[in-house]
Specification:
The structure holds two protein chains of two kinds.
Chain A (H helix, E strand, L loop, with lengths): L15 H26 L14 H8 L7 E4 L4 H7 L3 H8 L23 E4 L7 H13 L6 E6 L6 H13 L3 E7 L2 E2 L2 E2 H4 L6 H5 L5 E5 L3 H19 L2 E6 L17 H8 L3 H11 L5 H24 L17
Parallel strand pairs in A: 1-2, 1-3, 3-4, 4-8, 7-8
Antiparallel strand pairs in A: 5-6
Helix pairs in contact in A: 1-2, 1-3, 1-11, 1-12, 2-3, 2-9, 4-12, 5-6
Chain B lengths: L2 E3 H15 L3 E6 L14 H5 L4 E4 L3 H13 L3 E8 H15 L2 H4 L8 E7 L14 H5 L5 E3 L4 H13 L3 E7 L6 E3 L13 E4 L4 E5 L2 H14 L5 E5 L2 E3 L3 H11 L2 E8 L4 H13 L8 E5 L8 H7 L3 H15 L2
Parallel strand pairs in B: 2-3, 2-4, 4-5, 5-7, 6-7, 10-11, 10-13, 13-14
Antiparallel strand pairs in B: 1-8, 6-12, 9-11
Helix pairs in contact in B: 1-7, 3-4, 8-12, 9-10
The chains are: A alpha/beta, B alpha/beta.
Chain lengths: ~325, ~325
Amino acid sequence: MGGKTVTKVAKSGLDKKTVLNFLHQMLLIRKFEDKAGELYARGKIAGFLHLYNGEEAVAVGAVSALQEHDLLITHYRDHGHAIAKGIDVKRCMAELLGKATGCVKGRGGSMHFFDMSLGMYGGWAIVAGHLPLAVGLGLASNALGKKQVTLCIFGDGATNIGYFHEALNLAKLWNVPVVFLCENNLYGMGTAVHRASAVTEMVRKADAYNIPAERVDGMDVLAVREATAKAVEHARRGDGPYFLEVLTYRFRGHSMADPILYRDKSEVDEWKQRDPIVSFRQKLEAEGLLSPQELEQIERETDELIAEAVRFAEESPDPPLTDLYEDIYADS
Amino acid sequence: MPMITYREALNQALREEMARDERVVVFGEDVVAYGGAYGVTSGLVQDFGDKRIMDTPIAEGVIGGAAVGAAMGGLRPVAELMTINFALLASDALINHAAKVHHMFGGQMSVPLVIRMVGGGGAQLASTHSQSLEAMFAHVPGLKVVTPATPADAKGLLKSAIRDDNPVLCIEHALLYRVRGEVPEGDFLVPLGKAEVKREGKDITFVAYSRMTLVALEAADRLSQEGIEAEVVDLRSLRPLDMETVLASVRKTNRAVTVEEAWRTYGIGAEVASRIQEEAFDYLDAPIQRVAGVEVPMPYAKNLEQAAIPDARRVVEAVKKLLVRTNV
């Protein structure tokens, strides 16, 4: 499967609180997604719902390498990224239920989570459409001397679109502090990567634009963290963009409407053997960093957060009808 | 008041706004050394340096998208797309992104950006370089669209566009860059969404924008020799659309002809005519006439191209057709 893996937690240089928080966040995202899937099946959530199960190590590992004022801009499978960047699961769940208390007031739904104050600059639902935006954010950081790094996450499917090539080229020409992170989960919707991309190793595409690149094991939160930290440091130093290909896998369908006819169950099962949460938990236990009591506490806390999020979302009001005409234009 | 060209007026607007606000940056194809395909950004790099004005590759998708991102990041970018025909390649960034950010993300963020481009035909550039696609963009809530017809409006509208907190498309006209006119010096602003009566008259209202405003004025002069006084309303902004000024004129003249270079079907004239009959039906003495571009891809040959673009003669003909019906 390739990609760099970090074998030992102890060698990561991270303290116990940090690594336990990784587990906490990954579990919170997994439980959020499972609950969202359940609420979708019960008709409480509408529209498209793209779940992130299996890819949690990417969001948690990569975002952990950012500073608070750094920016994250991502694709439509954005729940995990938004939660990792700090949007309260209550406001995420309320958004899925189309409530006024949602992170974007019930206007965007699943694909458009956003919180300006947290530097979560959006889920964007036109594939690769946000890559040029990341270049613009990087330009602004340079022009305003902010030393702010933008982490731009997209899928393997995005690398076949003109936007991708235009954005990487200009990012390098303008030397912007952007980390391009490709979540290669091997499928663009239901089309396997080798059927959609003439080059299946995404990391090679960065070479066309002279952007340094690395391939990382996306099932290993520590490997993602380490690689992203290096890439972020590169960008913050003023050395320009960096490219990461993170190998991962989505356990569920593309969306809730996906009957998953395009891949064998055995393939899914094989990847589930490498579940990023289970494997990280086992690693922590093996190295004596996670006691049964600590695990139980994390399980309980994350369960409670999700239960509270559902309660909050269900009890929240719908947006008022007057909201229909609000915010079409900003007041100048 | 100094007489300067439309091109110089736009350059002055950029220069003044860049001096006024260091968040204003300019980028696009060949805007630095070349000075812009139509010379609008000429000399800016000497005054502001290459951190404030930057060339891009010929890649309209990333130009549009980078403008959105730069605005999200705190700049006030002015991006040049060369022509509206190439803006089709940036239309995803403009329609799916620029127009949505403020609303879709709950009103948390605005995107103050300007996209400049040339529209219109008349320079024998054939069908892919001569289009008037402004109605496509003016269709979209969240975007603003301005179409200056005079040097003064070019300066005043561009300056207002740069100061506006929303995405504004400034659609210039290739045949207007050398047109001269009086332009106030210094901080001269033309508000967005405000039409202007460019010529007063009592018998009929012409509603036009961009270069067709000049065509309508020429037609009005010809009609004046026959004792018909046309009022010419220059929309200046297509979105927001100032119907108040149009309606006030129609209530006075009781007749209207719309004049546009773009194709008639689903066009600006169609919208204006529809709004007039919705809001001032009782004032109309005759059906509204539309003078518009002929609905064909623009041909190269000079005689064919000229036949495809409205001129004063066609406007006068439309008026006569309309007046026959109403016995004025």
